[in-house]
User: Fold these one by one.
Assistant:
Number 1:
Amino acid sequence: MTEARVSTRRHYLMCEPRYFAVEYAINPWMDPTQPVNAEVAVKEWTELADTYRRWGHRVDFVEPVPGLPDMVFAANSGTVVGGRVLGARFRAPQRAPEADHYRRWFVDHGFRDVFMPTRTNEAEGDFTWTGEVLLAGTGFRTDPAAHAEAQEILGVPVVSLQLVDPRYYHLDTALCVLSPGHVAYYPEAFSPGSQQVLRHLFPDAIIATQADAECFALNAVSDGRNVVLPLEATHLADRLIADGYEPTFLDIAELRKAGGGPKCCTLEIRNQVDNSV
């Protein structure tokens, strides 16, 4: 019998891609020689934000800044657990100024415990809260030492995972938390040891295929029942339906030109430490 899935109300922070462009290449998906349409990117992003609100979630917005074309990828700019905010420190100099704009948003909106990292840390790009532990990716962006720093600042247990495929340069391109204790992931994105860790932690995980990973199906966002996916993620959607989830398909073709998808655009604000994902 399929398990009944339950959605929980979420609080998301997003940033409109008003100045979206691909002007440099800091991941294998970016090609500055290919045309990019910011108007199309805004439409894709708007449909994502509208979807969250239709599901009953709260969505707040950071004002975009000219000259920061990747600021739309809000997930890379903060990790919030129990109302404590750990900001970002980007590896690529092109994105470095984004961190302070997000820091100021949190301070201006009454968050008292806002900490900026001393180690390179690309936030929810590489940090994923499962409801019990913080999964922490490394290999391409986030410094391994940032994992210990996150544990000290956020006060939650951290499990390190090694990424090995440069196409999946952030943890959120290779793994998605669907509900407390339940994830989907693409094993080949991880080192052999990290694959063993994931099998141990999540024996009932949904195992994604190469085709799933390549269309950014794992850069999904779930509220425990509803899951937003790229249009092409039909295989993973079938698996989700079989496990009691309700997928919603969105076009992210323009945003994907910069190596981003639904999760990249979505920073989750968790005000309590509990088993909510």
Number 2:
Amino acid sequence: MNFRTNLQLKPERNQIDYDSKILLFGSCFSENISKKLAYFKFNTGSNPFGILFNPIAIERLITNAINLKEYTESDIFQLNERWHCFDAHSDISAIEKNELLLNLNNEISTTHKQLSEASHIVITLGTAWVYRFIENDTIVGNCHKVPQKKFLKELLSTQEITASLDNISTLIKSINSNVTIIFTVSPVRHLSDGFVENAQSKAHLLTAIHEITDIKNQLYYFPSFEIMLDDLRDYRFYAKDMIHPNEIAVDYIWEQFKKAWINENTALVMKDVETVQKGLAHKPFNPASKQHQQFLNNLKLKKNKLFEHYQIQF
């Protein structure tokens, strides 16, 4: 008897290899995948403005990066002795005003370059619920603990999300016509919005993504949401908060991502990279022993081989 409903993913076109340049935007799930890619030494960048959960915030970042917007004092504000920007996560906030502006503008410049050169862009949407700052009628990427009375909470319609994702795709393709864009929905439930409200939000995101996915135009969908909720669907795969996927779940979804998006030859190279990574993390009992010196020499040979063939640096 089969006690699981296992998703069977097929290899996609335009798969990732060690010549690929990968850029990720969106929720904390993007961070999880980015860490995996970085561990295996792929050329990857992630969330230049920190974690962003809603499509409007991601669209604004991409729009500003493509247009090389220059952030000024009018775009930031001070609260609780720190300077913040509504377009960015609080991780980007700074004590000094000029430091924040410098960081924002440096990231805009870097992201513009990455968008124009990327072979693959992964966009993870977390929620369709957004907060509109009443003072300037603008949807924010992060509220930075500004009093809630200064915002209106709204649920983006399917049509609004579809339009935003279409804008994102069109903007990126305007400077990088050959890029492959992979959309996914975060499996993390936003239960602070409410159980029913979270389900409605995810439904809007899923519907909108499927409205715009088009293999001919290199716009794809990866089912991380379905893998978590329909394949794993057991609380043993959740962290202590019973909301976020635990390490086992992240590893499993990563394996599914590999099946779909990383070609077989590259997967073999990844095994060699992992061998070196584990070797670098090894803590010897006796660093001066001949055995350990031989181990280090073998590790060096493996590193040199990976650099020679794939320009992989450790």
Number 3:
Amino acid sequence: MDCYLVMSCLSRQQIPPIPKVLASLLHRNHCTKNNTYKLYSSNVVCLAKDLNVTVRNGPVIKNPDDKSPPHFTWQTPFGLFTQTNNITTFHFDFGKYIFRGRIGPPVPWGPNGEGPEGWIDKLPFIPLHWFVFSLRSPVIQYELLNVQTGHRIERTNGVVHMEKNWGNSFPKGWIWSQGVSSHDNISFALSGGLVSLGEITTTQFLIGYRNLAKNLNLNYRPGNAKFSATHNGCVGWFKIKVYGLLHEIHLSASADLSTFSDCLYGPEITGFRQACIESYDAIINITVFKREFLSLKKIDSQIIKLSALEFGGTYTCDKRCKKGES
């Protein structure tokens, strides 16, 4: 039996070399309940001229606003991705596999279209932007067909995390992690690394944590928090402390090295090349403290299993997926 995890659709429209448009399906073979296995990717690519993006069945003539619900179609010779009335539909042919399904309404990061960056995403000089469209959309239905064997998997449950990036290029080194606890309405997402502004390079992060049962809706970014982070891509762990005005978050993430993929494709200004590794078997430990006068009071502690953990660029082990200069 095969176990399948995630699909990503990426597109760039700058100068050569190719590929400029890429879709990846990450999967694990012979997945069992108590064991973990390495991630593999199946990829399909095409030229930028073969990508067609429409908004409300017409050409794209302006950037979207923050508040309006998305209504667009992303189409290539190998696949289709649509967003209409808060329902996502997709159908992709990866050669050996066909993956299609429908996803329900989003659970947004914040009100009025706010994403992890908050007001920062309005700054024109930021080299890369990160937006989370949905923290935990419900799966309506999905189907995955192994064309070679005829084996078919059909399901009607699960949760889906959806996000996007845009800008000039990814950082020289970065970490991304995300996870949900379906039964407890707990979720988190974080991204960060080496951010270059002109001649200055700093380490910055964006992080959000949700625990509805404890009324915790925490969002931190440069400007409202300080960060202290360490990482080791050769061991497969990452730790960060977030110092906010009213709260602190201590988060550690780790995954067995055997569960990580080989280098996966990541975007550069010239196109896509192998730039990062991922595991979807990470164990996340999150502790939240509330500031009380001169002390800290622990108000939440959670373990979120089967989370995503990605090391990219120079943050991979021995820089084996180091990005070229953009």
Number 4:
Amino acid sequence: MDRIRIQNLEVFANHGVFPEETRLGQKFLVSAELLVDTRAAGKSDELDQSIHYGMVAQEITSYMKTHTRKLIEAAAEDLAEHLLLTYPLMKGIVLEIKKPWAPVGLPLETVSVCIERRWHKAYVAFGSNMGDKRAHVEAGIRVLREEPGIRLGRISDMIVTEPYGGVDQDDFLNGCLELETLLTPHELLEVLHKAEQQEKRERLIHWGPRTLDLDLLFYDDEILESPELVVPHPEIEKRTFVLEPLAQIAPWKVHPVLKKRIKTLLEELENK
């Protein structure tokens, strides 16, 4: 990914733990690497095809002055998120905030925090087989749409499928959606659970009926395993109700473990 660099922008602001820091203020040096595809701007020579680094520098200055934090870790986190939400062409950012007047009582040049944040692509399966199924699904999608760190992409058709797992219950309304997010996988999982809980989802029977089911299928190409979350979601390759709608929106997505495209996995399952 191409990068636009802003190096050691001086900002006088009032971040700090100690009262004199927030009262008197001090100098901070902010450096930012903006991850952006500059190809279009390089070919067209038009500014609207890129990110105006002068405006970004002004935005950094304004935000640092008006959003006071005790820790530069918090200042960096907030500023990175703000810039990524403000500039649609920005795919990611490497941000460093230096504190040259850090009150540590020892001779040093500077103390700094450097973080990298970017948009991640994820795929989520949704389903419902209780009550007004479509209304439950639409309410869950609305929660995702309203989350600041999420941008919804393509959404598949909703398809009617038979229950999976052998439990006697009503047919499901299933589908998949694509999103971009600034959240970590576990933070995204919390949002999915919040949406389920809003629709009064109860986890009483494994593979049982539910008002709303939201499953994180993929998060970039990461392979994760924890007590709370496994990514890619287990048994994707065995579930037509996942593969069929997913193939509508991401047929060429490669499963990072199986090394096969979604389109291929669906064809293999249908031919069994």
